[in-house]
Design brief:
This protein is mainly alpha-helical and 82 residues long. The protein contains 5 helices and no strands.
Length: 82
């Protein structure tokens, strides 16, 4: 049976949070007060989201404080078992 690849954190952030609200990476980096290159590394899967950054995302997108860390952990587990 063929498995469907798990979307990356960046794909989920872009498709489910940024695009529906019309938020660009530049605007999000500015709103969260994080460097754009760092945000781009998160969005492209080149670095993990640190807890302090995850809390900024959670506050901005009105989710629970652990939402993005739990999502990141779930993606990691799914890919490990893939």
């Amino acid at each position: 049976m063929r498995k469907i690849p798990t979307p990356t954190l960046g794909q989920i952030l872009t498709a489910e949070f940024m695009n529906p609200q019309g938020i660009t990476a530049e605007k999000l980096a500015q709103e969260l007060n994080i460097p754009l290159p760092h945000l781009n590394r998160i969005l492209h899967g080149n670095t993990l989201m640190a807890p302090e950054i995850a809390i900024k995302f959670s506050k901005f997108f009105n989710t629970s404080d652990n939402f993005f860390l739990n999502l990141q952990k779930d993606i990691f587990k799914r890919n490990k078992n893939y």
